[in-house]
Structures
1.
Amino acid sequence: MFAPLLLLLARPSYGTQHVYQWRDAVTNKQLTCQRCPPGTFVLQHCTENNQTWCEHCPDLHYTQYWNYLEKCRYCNVICGEKQVEVQQCNATHNRVCQCQDGYYSEMEFCNRHSKCPPGFGVEKLGTPFENTQCGACPRGFFSSSSSSTEPCQPHQDCEQQGKVVNVEGNRYHDTLCTSCGPMGTDHRIPGDDDCEQAMIDFVAYQNIPIRKLKRLQQILEHTPRMQAEGTRAAMQEKFHALLTRLKDGSPVTKELLRALRTARLYSIEEQARERFLLR
Ligand SMILES: *[C@@H]1O[C@H](CO)[C@@H](O)[C@H](O)[C@H]1NC(C)=O
Ligand SMILES: *[C@@H]1O[C@H](CO)[C@@H](O)[C@H](O)[C@H]1NC(C)=O
């Protein structure tokens, strides 16, 4: 849209860029006229006796440069869906639009900033011009949510809290600590809430295949079939949430051990029993 104006501006100027050559239609003489300043246009070209007559641009029209246009340009930029006006149309500038918060422009469209999936964190926040940049969480960090703003978080330090590691953290979830005493101490009281939570945490984040996780969920919820799909990390989160929900109703320990056996997850059942002294 600036092409015609740029062409005019690109013509050789004589001495100063604020003048232009013009042939008077009446006398056929070549004249050097003054250009009009930004915000105005040429109402009348100069004559032998008169300077160029410049006028202000009407509403919704502009000229950005020293010019000899006979009409101002129309502010032809219209802000579309998902855009906001960041520069109003005035006598010297066209309207300027930009993608609204949470969107970036790509091929003339405003697309929503991507979310980084679990296991990935935001390395660079999206801008109106650039999408979010995600990176896999490095060792010692995790991200359990799908987010366009959250970076990876460091795993918590159980020792610092005077607790022990119950479940090692990975890219998808935090380290889970417990004060349900370490192995070999007699701090553990079966049925104790801390220990019950610790057992839930322990079981939920074992390397249980998705198929078996679904089976467990089915057994514990007494539902015919789990339709939820997703990655194992997502399934583990769901399973963990389910167990925590069940626990809030009534003690879930026994039921969980029974479910593990029904799902033929004998070694996990055994580990849970040993670890939490549920003999
Ligand atoms: C010279 O320009 C003025 C306005 O700048 C205008 O009023 C006048 O009519 C013009 N004179 C001639 C001879 O064109
Ligand atoms: C027109 O808008 C531009 C860009 O926002 C600004 O720099 C300029 O001062 C404005 N001019 C007037 C007359 O308001």
2.
Amino acid sequence: MRKVYVVGFDGATWRFIRPLVERGEMPHFQRLMADGVSGTLTSVIPFQSAAAWVTFMTGKNSGKHGVYMFQDYDAVSYTFAGRTANSRYFSGQTMFDIVGQMGGTVSAVRVPLTYPAWPVNGVMVSGFPTPGDTPESFYPPELRTEVGSTAQPDEDPDFRQLTVEQQVASLENQMSRMSTLVSGMIGGQHDLFVVVHRVPDPVHHFFMKFVDPRTPAYDPDLTPRWGDLVNRFYRKMDDALGETLAAIDDDDTLFVISDHGGAITPPRQFNVNVWLAGQGLLTPHQKTSSRRERMYALNQQLLPSRVRSLLRRHAPKAVRGELRQMWQGLQRIEFGRSQAYHFPMKCSPLAGIVINVRGRQPEGVVPPEEYEALRDRIIRDIQGVQDPRTGERIVLRVYKREELYDGPFVERAPDIIVWCQDLYREGPFAQGPMVSDVPFDELQQVSGAHDDQGIMLARGPQLAKGKTVSDAKLIDMTPTILHAMELPVPSDMDGRVLTEIFADPDRAVESIELDLSKKTADSYLSEDEEQLIKDKLKGWGYL
Ligand SMILES: [Zn+2]
């Protein structure tokens, strides 16, 4: 078995790395590009950390592992308010379990969606999101006393409410804690070592407004002060990579990857339910809106985010639930009179659509035998939708869910997945204009989002040198890592071995049937843990 190291940078994108490498400001990345292979790593759909990292760990699509988002996708419930995803969904199926099964030892350090930690042949420190460093954050639990003091990088209660200076300090603190954690663990016993640094992702979400003039939140007056901020964190990433390179042997195999890329938060929203209503497929609530709804709409438009957030936090629980539903536009739909409705995928620029099928949903109206025809009609018609204000095409492409997913959990996904052009994201409204502007303070608060273009670099004695690859996907990483370790690849994986990155692309891929105990994807956390994690996800702008 060959030793392999994997360093993940959540959300890292070539868009920022390439110019810095060209200017010699990311020397370790530059060296890896010269010594090994590099290229784009295409993410999954939705290109969000939860689905992406679980796909990375399992080599399987969301239809098989069940995770689409930090919260459950449940296309047929009408509330979409699922429990938060966690490691109990998919334990028994990751690269850590497979390597352990084959007699190898593993260290998994802060890989997202590994909370609660589970028994592996080695050690595990859970990654984002966790309710804090509880005993369940570590395997074995005793590991907590060794590394616990260095392992709390995501503790800020509501990151969105911090000043830029405080955000910078918090992220720098995360990076230095990670550096201490990695240096304490990288020298241990392991055949497979995987660490994920979370920092590039919040850097994009919160600082994109300082570098990308395409977002309305961009303010050129702030460039002298903050224009270098994103690059500063990328240079720190390069330092982190340098520390790892210094700690491993030159002939150890190393992969550097990200789970998706970064983009601006789209400034316009496509209110899919308004479009569906226009097609005669959805009936908005006929009742005049309640005073509370009008207040909500008003505060959405006018109040600074800080005040809104305070209102939300201090409102009684029942009102909070109602506010959330209003955001989703649900109270404005009469489900019993709607054939299809928007499913929020929470991954701009994606939007889901669900057919309201009789017998499947509580108020389903579409006879099952008409499902396919209606789905085909919606897919055909939505492709041509134009922004009435500019005439621009809104939709880039449309999928049926079974074109993207395969396995027992396909049913969780919406029936149709719409991918909008860069400048559009899904909008929450069922009435009013079909396209509206995303409220300015929302853009200012979270100015960055994701795209599907991650990064991949790899170096090792059995890998090609100085080669660029163009067809690598995140889902290919588990089989590729196993092959690089000279281990067989389980036959039920969806990804392929990236044979083109090896110096000997013809080395046969060994396949194996593995019968690892599978848990069903319905295991949840306690209510308290769940609430802590949800609060944290909200604080980072993920829910
Ligand atoms: Zn991510």
